[in-house]
Amino acid sequence: MLKPNVLRKKKDFSTIYNEGKSVGERYVVLFYKKNDLPYNRTAFLASKKVGNSVIRNRARRLMKESYRKLEQYLESGYDLIWIARKTINNLKCEDVKKSMEAALKKPGILKK
Known about the structure:
By secondary structure, the chain is of the alpha+beta class. The protein has a single domain (about 5-105), classed as 2-Layer Sandwich (Ribosomal Protein S5, domain 2). About 35% of the residues lie in helices and about 20% in strands. The protein contains three helices and four strands; from the N terminus they run H-E-E-E-H-E-H. Helix 2 packs across helix 3 (about 95-105). The longest helix has 18 residues, at about 55-70. The radius of gyration is 13 Å and the shape is globular. The mean pLDDT is about 95.
């Protein structure tokens, strides 16, 4: 994931939360909104409800790795915010990938 493909500005987050749509899965929640760019921009979040900093960082790493594996199969032109749920603790990467894949299939962002 390249640097310009990462969401950082508060304005972008607010726009996605307010104008975008969301999909909930067992381990992750996806907020998404169509953008006018030829590539996807993403952000990975884990709140303090997930656990301490070690657990939150692991949750973000799991989501990033799962996204990396799915990235080639995605439609382009979306802003995506991934939020880890508390249930993500003690999971393998494959479980998180399946949950993210299911979340992407619902709105039709996954090409598979």
